[in-house]
Amino acid sequence: MDCVNGKTKEVGRRRNYSRTQPESKRMGGVEEESQRNGTKQIKVSREDSDRGNTDWKLAPVRDTTAGKILERLEILEKRHLEYVHSHQARLKARLGESEEAENEFKEESNQIKTDIFHLVAHENSGDDVIQVK
Q1: pLDDT tens-digit profile of 20-76?
Q2: Is the backbone of residue 16 left (phi > 0), alpha (psi -120 to 50) or beta?
Q3: What Cα–Cα distance (Å) separates residue 18 from each residue in 14, 15, 21, 130?
């Protein structure tokens, strides 16, 4: 093994390749020149067309007047904003609960620290009785 600056030149004997095709091959692309007529053909790979966005499919054509499209957009916007606002309200309620729990924890933690401090102080002074105020 050859060394340069304390490091070996050869890191490992594994091959540096993967079994997947490059992105451009998977997504489709420009083919080499056709042998028939010398033109370059653009085609979509089968993998992309089979496994594309499966949620989106061609739907039947609806009333496509500007008024109807705008009406559907406004309904969609209203429903989405109602959902978002109700979700935000739930988040705010949970935040309030969390802040309240934090404050209760801090108060109880400080009270326990104070109790321990007084217990240690009374043990050092020789008093056997601890008075609760």
Answers
A1: 555 555 555 555 555 566 666 666 555 555 556 667 778 788 888 999 999 999 999
A2: beta
A3: 11, 9, 8, 74
Q: What is the pLDDT of residue 130?
A: 55
**pLDDT of the residue at 58:** 81
Count Cβ atoms within 10 A of the Cβ of residue 39 and give its class: 0-12 exposed, 13-18 middle, 19 or more buried: exposed
* Nearest CA among 28, 32, 30, 29 for reference residue 49: 28
CA distance 78 to 102: 36
**CB 3: neighbour CB atoms within 10 A?**
8
CA-based radius of gyration for the chain: 36
Nearest residue to 27 via CA among 16, 43, 6, 11: 43
Distance in angstroms (rounded) separating the CA atoms of residues 36 and 34 = 5
Cα-to-chain-centroid distance, residue 95: 21
pTM of the predicted model as reported, rounded to 2 decimal places: 0.41
Question: Smallest Cα–Cα separation from 42: which of 23, 27, 20?
Answer: 27
